[in-house]
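Problem 12. The chain below contains 335 residues. Write out its predicted structure in token notation.
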Amino acid sequence: MQGVAETRTWDAVLTTTLANYREKLIDNVFDYYPFLSWLVGKLGNSLRQAGPHTGQGQVSRGSERLRKLDGGESIVEHLLYEVSSAVKSYSNYEGLDTTPQDGLTIARYSWRQYASTISISGLERRNNNGEAQMLDLMKAKTTQSEMSLRRRMAIDAHGSNSDGKSFDGLGTILSTTATLGGLSPTTFTWWQPTIRASGSFAAVGINDMRITFNTISFGEDVPDAIFMPQAVFEFFENTLQPQERYTNTKAANVGFQNLTFKGIPTIFDRQSTASTVTFCNSDYLSLCVHRNAFFSTGKFIEPENQDAMTAKILFQGNITVNNRRMHGRMTGVTA
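Solution.
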């Protein structure tokens, strides 16, 4: 039974190798495309400094952007949608307002699941019979899965996905009509982002950026990243004089092309929706993941009816927002 023992040995070696690669896989998936890297990767870690975070003093902006959860039927975000009316100035023994307050509700986000498989045929295993050759093959197979996962997740993170399986992406979050978290923005107007119909960037682009930015800014609570597809980024760049083309060095140092607007990194992301400028605030966006399916890796298993072995990489989570009003988008941007 030497062949069976050899197969089991390789199954164990490859399973361990894949498990050990998991942390690097997470980094490589989230640090290739700008938006995901800003949300939970090295770009966000580089950019964020101590700053306002509602009611919590001086803590890192977007400090809850990656949330690892133990389970639950859905992902719950608690929302505060109006201020208390029981606040007043008073004098001496004057009575205080103890009126019970509403203004709190929840948004429920469904879990989304992604998977990739790594398969090695018996022919490939026998043709790469040796530890170095087999590990090289494993590296190539893993790289293929990694590239496929990060591209699909980056596309979905920007998308308007209605299949019930993919992320609730920015296309859904930045919509004044799409139901999100079980709440309709047409019914609950406080659950609407700011959408500004724009036009020629040369004529109105900078002014529209200024208006959108100011509309969703409240004191120090301002957007901390702006994303543009290639064409719009080039429109923006063309409007700036050479002495005005400032770059955020922290973003540049981790490999992301950017300019700045009002001191905020304005980032070229080729997955961004065409003809748009997207303003995001990391205090109100999160990637929630199930801690047992955060790119978890399984064993290599050989089916009874196939000369091959396969392992799975599993992800369960979703992008959530707890204040839709703090994000904005310009649409219809042209040269």
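Discussion. The mean pLDDT is 88. Students who got a different answer should revisit the alignment rule from Section 12.3.
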